[in-house]
Design goal:
single chain, 104 residues, mainly beta, SH3 type barrels, 1 helix, 48% strand
């Protein structure tokens, strides 16, 4: 079972439900068999948290905290690497800022 902070390769279904593609993603958490992930893109113009090849990414990339979805364990093809504690803390800080909007 993947754990928080894992970068995985997973099959992601398009919103229309008719097709899917294989994409990298960050595991945020797992609960009751549901795995909540954030998408990753190599489009460095996108907003998000950068990860580099030095950290383990295949290409310099961006974790998109505005692209969150749920998958099952069966959709994960493989785990690629684990984010450093510092980068996991940065993800937590940025995600917390977004969730803070719920307080208002």
């Amino acid at each position: 079972m993947p754990k928080a902070g894992d970068i995985v390769i997973t099959r992601v279904q398009f919103t229309d439900g008719e097709a899917s593609k294989i994409r990298p993603a960050l595991v945020l958490f797992e609960e009751l068999g549901n795995i909540i992930i954030a998408g990753i893109t190599t489009n460095l113009q996108m907003k998000g948290i950068r990860i580099s090849t030095k950290e383990g990414a295949a290409q310099d990339s961006v974790i998109k905290l505005n692209y969150i979805f749920t998958i099952t364990d069966g959709a994960i093809i493989k785990t690629v690497f684990q984010l450093s504690p510092e980068k996991r803390h940065l993800v937590f800080q940025e995600f917390t800022k977004k969730l803070a909007l719920l307080k208002n």
